[in-house]
Specification:
The protein is mainly alpha-helical. It has 15 helices and 6 strands. The longest helix is centred in the first third of the chain and has 15 residues.
């Protein structure tokens, strides 16, 4: 009998033996809960964690016991159906209070962490060169994981020792920790390591835009000497004419690609890339300036990946735009003349551009952005909530 079989038997035993206590641990369960952990392998990430560690991370990611009053999990603010972002402007914490910023999606963290620096030993993710959160206040993925758990609004766990004791008393964790680490000991380091492994496994590489890039090749036009991207005639047309037009507008005419590097497999930007995109003439939330203390950084926020952007709305650090159409309207005719407005959004006279994007071009841009969707991530059972109500 394999360890996976033993795990399934343990979970089934847990349903019948401690269903009532499970109901206390998961308050919204009606008749108790059980763990549904199908034998779906995870792709290894750069930390080379085994599937048992990643599976444990999945359970922890969805477990509301990681909050002070058992009401909020990591997944409460990072929903699979929303591309592991939240589908509201501000997320609701363990006491019902709202966060001050829109929840960024948990995806492609591996690229954000490792693309800009040499790979370190497993567990050494400090000062990786990446900047995490909207204001870039962290460069450590481990701290990114722990901050919401201890945040006074989000999950409220101030004493990690109490959390480890709490999880040790949940019967379903004994086989999970044993499978992952060889024994049942619950520590904050092991909790962090497991959630990290699960988060790093969420990658959006199965998009039509990626498929398009995989089915074309480059030739040199003898007339102009320019490189041309050609799709072989025997390959399917994975992007329609409107989407291709939107791609050209995105990458050339409106130069959106100078901020959002969509041609990257993971859709990451250069490390430390922030921009003031003219949302306001004066910002109530000054973003990066709160971290650096530099007035020139007021109104600058981390440039997000556009992978799965179709699902991750509302948009911007404060969730002010409900739709992609509203975002494009902002860049078309809504830029504010903020002193720190990004130079790429200024005209020749130094003031905010008026791009005046036509409705047809707006439709094309939205169509292209939807080719960056990886629908498998929002439906794959290996990323889904393992707590099932019986």
């Amino acid at each position: 009998m394999t360890s996976r079989d033993l795990l399934n038997l343990s979970c089934l035993a847990f349903v019948f033996v401690v269903a009532s206590s499970c109901q206390d641990q998961q308050p919204d369960a009606v008749n108790g809960t059980y763990l549904d952990l199908p034998a779906v392998p995870y792709e290894y990430n750069n930390l080379n964690e085994n599937n048992a560690v990643t599976t444990l991370g999945r359970v922890l990611f969805y477990d509301r016991q990681l909050s002070l009053n058992n009401t909020t999990a990591c997944a409460s603010c990072h929903k699979q159906s929303a591309g592991f972002a939240d589908n509201v402007k501000f997320s609701r914490g363990f006491e019902g209070r709202l966060t001050s910023r829109n929840s960024m999606p948990v995806q492609n963290l591996q690229a954000n962490i490792f693309a800009f620096d040499s790979f370190r030993e497993p567990g050494d993710l400090m000062n990786s060169g990446a900047h995490l959160f909207w204001d870039g206040r962290e460069s450590s993925l481990d701290n990114l994981i722990l901050q919401p758990v201890s945040n006074h609004i989000e999950m409220g766990i101030r004493d990690l020792a109490s959390l480890t004791k709490k999880l040790s008393e949940a019967s379903y964790y004994a086989p999970l920790f044993s499978d992952a680490y060889g024994d049942q000991e619950v520590t904050s380091e092991r909790i962090t390591r497991a959630i990290r492994a699960f988060a790093l496994s969420i990658n959006t590489t199965n998009t039509r835009f990626d498929l398009y890039n995989q089915t074309k090749f480059t030739i040199i036009d003898p007339g102009s000497g320019l490189n041309l991207l050609i799709r072989p005639s025997n390959q399917p047309a994975v992007m329609n004419p409107l989407e291709l037009e939107g791609m050209l507008l995105f990458q050339s005419k409106y130069d959106c690609n100078s901020c959002h590097q969509v041609q990257s497999t993971f859709g990451y930007q250069m490390a430390g890339t922030f921009a003031n995109v003219g949302l306001d003439k004066e910002y109530a939330d000054t973003g990066l300036e709160k971290i650096t203390g530099n007035p020139a950084d007021a109104g600058k926020f981390k440039i997000p990946s556009l992978r799965n952007v179709e699902f991750t709305g509302p948009y911007m650090h404060d969730g002010r735009f409900a739709t992609l159409a509203e975002v494009i309207d902002h860049y078309s005719e809504g830029l504010n003349n903020n002193p720190n407005l990004d130079s790429r959004l200024k005209g020749e006279n130094g003031t905010a551009k008026s791009m005046n994007i036509s409705q047809h071009e707006k439709d094309a841009l939205v169509a292209f952005l939807k080719t960056l969707s990886d629908r498998s991530v929002i439906t794959d059972p290996k990323f889904s909530d393992p707590f099932k109500v019986k």
